[in-house]
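Table 4 source record.
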Amino acid sequence: MIFITFFLIAQGFITYDEGTFRAFQIVNKGFLCFGNRGKTQDIKFRDSFENIPQVILIPELFDIPGTKVDYSLEITQITLTKFTLSIKCFDGVVYGIHYKWLSIDDARIQVINNFNIKNFQQITIDHSNPNALKYLINVIAFSFTGSVNFEVKVSEINAKSLTIIISDQQNSLSNLTSLSYQIILGINDIFQIYEKKISSLSISNSFPLIQWSWFLLPFQGFQHDGINALKFKKEYVLSVNSLAYEFSGGNFESYQSCCCIQTFYYIPCWMKYEHITQATPLEIGSVLIKQLFDSKVDYIQSFKVLIDGDNQIAKDSGETRIIIDEADKQPILNLHVKCTDQETVKINLIFQNSNENSITNPILHSCSGSYQEVIISFSLIPTIVAYQELIVDIQETECQISQVLTNQRQSRQHLFFIQKQ
């Protein structure tokens, strides 16, 4: 894997880093992994991050000479200045594994780690960014007792969760004894993903270089015959404006040759680490107020919030998350308020300027007579095509609506709040 990297240092902190890890190999560090032997190694970043970064491992070389192997490999700790990688071999031999590692401090990227799993059933996992709908699957290690043919796949992904399955293409999953993989989630702008490939000994086509991006070759799965050794490495050819790659088999100082390269599934891609699209807050187009005197109030607290044409409702005390679909070009947010005689509803709109948030003169609405409920409809205008994440905070006499903006940092932008007086 080729990295063309410029380090961005702001206020003494780095925001991304990369390197090569080769300590788990007999030829480099004299470490032979077998017979319950293990090793733990710290990998230091070039400087300190401000927040705990996401760490990605991309396998670059496998040198496993036997027809079966049982080993564990995992990231055991990540701090501001380093991460820790651990390997332990229980059965068989590992002569060496190389990794390229990437670390990045950006809330638009989420890495889901599943290390050393032995249950290969379907799982569903929540994710934190509704716009992180592109992903990379990255198998980093697996153990086997015979032939295997598997792929890690995302069968479904939406604004709140994703479902992961392990495919079994030749009914050989019983020979797969453990598996470590990562799912790397990001917004559309982060990844440029090419077609899925199957391993070949020929050199690839050229890929034009993309500035501020890493070129990656993550594995989705492997087809291993359980007879020959698992031995291959990636090699790269870099020119002025492009790069190409190839996989090679053969002897990597383990004093054994292999007759053929094993089959594996992978997807070439570019991954941005700088100059990523910024999320921007919603704008308020209009506010409409209407008062009902014979309404059927179906909520216990003072407020209820819902989006036109959507079944998401916030009506319980505390915070509720609401996701507005990216296809909704001008969503209407309806805020219901219990309103009795002698009460006043105060509507505070919050506008953003270059220096600070400012609150406009509040809109006051007096409740009178037999009216029981006020409905305030806000027309919202998205400033970017994306899922919009709102947080509704309902208290006894106040309801506040905020928007979650996920950029390099995740922040909350207050939009408006309603008070009963």
